[in-house]
Amino acid sequence: MVGVGVDVVDIVRLVDSLHRTPALVDRLLTPSERSLSDASRAGRVAAKEAVGKALGHPGDFSWQDVTVERTADGRPYLVLRGATERCARALGVTHLHLSLSHDGGVATAIVVAERTVRTATDDDPTAKEPR
């Protein structure tokens, strides 16, 4: 495992900030995230913060480098670009696990950055698997 990141966002506070400073919508959210519900947008912001923490660099990446998408069955997953993707690759991250939740006016995101441990047989296609 590379790291774990957790973040919480107060939904009303985020909504108030977005109304007070409309440019924040374009800064914090990718185009596909902007039309979501307030709670879902807060979850996206929390997820972006959690990614930075899981990679050990909170606050060092562009908000546009991280997007939360959903599978056909509704499971959230992360798409990285730019400096965030380069950092993840440099750390050997092979998978990012994401959990999102919102309740009681707070959105929560947990990200686990995982790397697969390589063995000698991974690099040698002629090596036999242990029995």
From TrEMBL:
One of its GO terms (molecular function) is holo-[acyl-carrier-protein] synthase activity. Its main location: cytoplasm. Keywords: Cytoplasm, Fatty acid biosynthesis, Fatty acid metabolism, Lipid biosynthesis, Lipid metabolism, Magnesium, Metal-binding, Transferase. It comes from the Bacteria. Transmembrane segments: none annotated. SUPFAM superfamilies: 4'-phosphopantetheinyl transferase. HAMAP family: AcpS (MF_00101). This is Holo-[acyl-carrier-protein] synthase. It comes from Brachybacterium huguangmaarense.
